[in-house]
Design a protein that fits this description.
- The chain is an alpha/beta fold.
- It folds into two domains: about 5-20 and about 260-395, Alpha-Beta Complex (Aspartate Aminotransferase, domain 1); about 25-260, Type I PLP-dependent aspartate aminotransferase-like (Major domain) (Aspartate Aminotransferase, domain 2), CATH 3.40.640.10.
- It has 14 helices and 14 strands.
- The strands form four sheets. Strands 1-9-8-5-4-2-3 form a seven-stranded mixed beta sheet, with helices on both faces. The chain has a three-stranded antiparallel beta sheet with strand order 7-6-12, with no helix packed on it.
- Helix 3 (about 30-45) packs antiparallel against helix 10.
- The termini are far apart.
- Bound molecules: pyridoxal-5'-phosphate.
- Pyridoxal-5'-phosphate (PLP) binds near residues 75, 76, 100 and 174.
Length: about 400
């Protein structure tokens, strides 16, 4: 039997590994205040959809600059419920990308809608807005751009096509807490936006959690009903909903962590800048800094001609790596051959085998970052055939 971690492309970390993510570290450093929040919930005696959830919903909407927020049980539910609440119905087509977490497609199909793939832009690795028009048919009801790795998608162009084609736009913000375009936070551009608070996200719970934000009172009211059996009022269901409620414990912990989100995102960007500097002259390629966007740097994903060798080389120095994602959705067994647009994804195809995620989270110590930088600096590979202008600090887009 093969080694499972290696088979799916992950380099097994050594004991002293510098991890790609360390969700326990923030909990350890905020232990007292998190325990106090848990104690408050335990003593409150109200464990589902109570005051903590209400407060978190207000605080998260306020942080983003959105009018409304509805807490739900996961990011996948957030996306599915956002699609349904805006008016996407079974049989409607929803245009999105294959270069994403499979959850994006799971959510679309969960409500009976039909995903259609469009390719990505090689610089942002997000939906290519120039290809969008051609993917839209009379059955298209919505577009789901994914702000992948924390990089905002080209919302202005996407919204322009959506308006012309009368489609809803639901942003998948699962990886982009605090990312912005021109200072305006992602999650406030579309008709609604879905967030995941999975523990490794920039804002992470200690279990599953998610939220939908919107600026539309009707969508908000429908979401509140859909997340709880379609109830108009207790025990009266107006339509078929589900059980997808955010619990008090997760909301209380998210409120504690929200206070640190901006500082921690800034630390991610500072580490990313150091990596970008270290990668100059190595032949491997840093993420491209899209002007006028603020990257949430959920993941630092470089490009390499020799991805597997680079991963092995980093692993030898105790530096873990990961693949986001080892297989794009259109090539996964459950989806192969059945999603429209899957045969027109040359950039997705060219990129996915070249991408490597290296540790870039705010709980890395300076010494650990230095170890990664020194190891990267000593790397050398023939220059990439897919030429990406390297990141330059002077562009300031990561800061
Ligand atoms: C891009 C993207 N969309 C959706 C999701 C789904 O979120 P969750 O795992 O909370 O259901 C994730 C989380 O992994 C994600 O990364």
């Amino acid at each position: 039997m093969g080694n499972m971690a290696t088979d799916i492309g992950l380099q097994p970390p050594r004991p002293s590994a510098i991890q790609v993510a360390d969700p326990g570290a923030e909990v350890r450093s905020d232990r007292e205040i998190i325990l106090a929040a848990i104690e408050r919930v335990l003593c409150g005696g109200h464990y589902i959809l109570g005051r903590e959830v209400e407060s978190f919903e207000k605080e998260w909407a306020g942080y983003l600059g959105a009018c409304n927020c509805v807490g739900v049980a996961s990011g996948t539910d957030a996306l599915a419920l956002a699609l349904k609440a805006t008016g996407v119905e079974p049989g409607d087509e929803v245009v999105t990308v294959s270069h994403t977490a499979v959850a994006t497609i799971v959510a679309i199909e969960a409500i009976g809608a039909i995903p259609v793939f469009v390719d990505i832009d090689p610089r942002s690795r997000c939906m290519d807005p120039n290809l969008l028009r051609a993917a839209i048919t009379p059955r298209t009801r919505a577009i789901v751009p994914v702000h992948i790795y924390g990089q905002p998608a080209a919302m202005e162009q996407i919204l322009c096509v959506a308006r012309q084609c009368r489609c809803f736009v639901i942003e998948d913000c699962a990886q982009a807490h605090g990312a912005a375009i021109g200072g305006r936070k992602v999650g406030t551009f579309g008709d609604a936006a879905a967030f995941s608070f999975y523990p490794t996200k920039n804002l992470g719970a200690i279990g599953d959690a998610g939220a939908v934000v919107s600026n539309d009172g009707t969508i908000d009211a429908r979401l509140r009903s859909l997340r709880q059996y379609g109830w108009r009022e207790r025990y009266v269901s107006d339509e078929i909903g589900i059980n997808s409620r955010l619990d008090e414990l997760q909301a209380a912990i998210l409120r504690v962590k929200l206070c640190h989100l901006d500082r921690r995102n800034q630390k991610r960007r500072t580490i990313a800048e150091r990596y970008c500097d270290a990668l100059i002259s190595t032949g491997a390629v840093s993420p491209y800094a899209i002007p006028d966007t603020t990257h949430a740097m959920h993941l630092f994903v470089l490009e390499s001609n020799m991805r597997d060798s680079l991963a092995g080389y980093l692993s030898e120095a105790g530096i873990a790596t990961a693949l986001h994602y080892p297989i794009p959705v259109h090539r996964q067994p459950a989806y192969v051959g059945r999603i429209a647009g899957a045969d027109r994804l040359p950039v997705t195809e060219a990129l996915y085998e070249r991408l490597l995620t290296i540790p870039c989270h705010p709980d890395l110590t300076d010494e650990q970052v230095q170890v990664v930088c020194e190891r990267l600096q000593a790397w050398s590979e023939p220059t990439s055939p897919v030429i990406q202008p390297p990141f330059h600090r002077s562009q300031g887009a990561l800061s």
